[in-house]
User: What shape does this take?
Amino acid sequence: MVASAPALGQQIEVNGVSLFVEEQGQGDPVVLVHAGLLSSGSWAGVVPLLAESYRVITFDNRGHGRSTNPSSALSYEQMADDTAALIDALGLERPFVGGWSDGGEVALQLGLRHPSLARALIAGGTSLEMGTENVRSQTRAFFHIDDNGVVDLDAVAGAFEQSLLPMLRQSHPHGEQHWQTIIQQSAAMWLTYAGLTREQVERITEPVLVVVGDRDEHVPVEEAVRLYRWLPRPELAILPGTSHFRPMGDPTAFACSVMDFLQRH
Assistant: This one.
């Protein structure tokens, strides 16, 4: 096994924001979009596995980690456009593009909004539930949102003190206000997102690997299967014994499924 070169970080200006970008490995390019509320650091376990055979590019979405966001708002559509602009800025020719959770939704939006830009897509930990009242209800409970639409940040910090909160603080280096801002902007995005219709999904012409854990607390396997059935050129990987966050902390099964898909496309 040949060791990959260390990641190289840089700031790249696209769409009025400065995105923090890292690269590792050589070969066909693979662009990874991180999960919501976190940063590209959440890919730390996945990148070395893929970088043995590919040029792996990770970046902090606008406002997250070390990237800026003067607009003070988030949307999946805008993050897909940022990803497309980054691909152009780096001069990548039809890279693979994949993501997990929110990142998977961004990958699907990229396929919809920028046809043929990617060689193939990976939509991990996402489903067609996004945009439904069920998800909006879960969002209100998750973020402790009151009847006026205000996030109770103290309640969020208390509920996730031993789990999500340390990850938030590690992902967002600019103090407490940084992760709190990401919470507020993400909550607004999740509550207002319309989701993808069947007609939109059927317009995504690239090969798409749909990945889901069979123990995912947020994405029922049945919803991932529905997405798989609507896509024109889909493949499906169900990871055994896998919760929503496990692919980040225990990435081997996820990386193996992705590698198998990449090697065939």
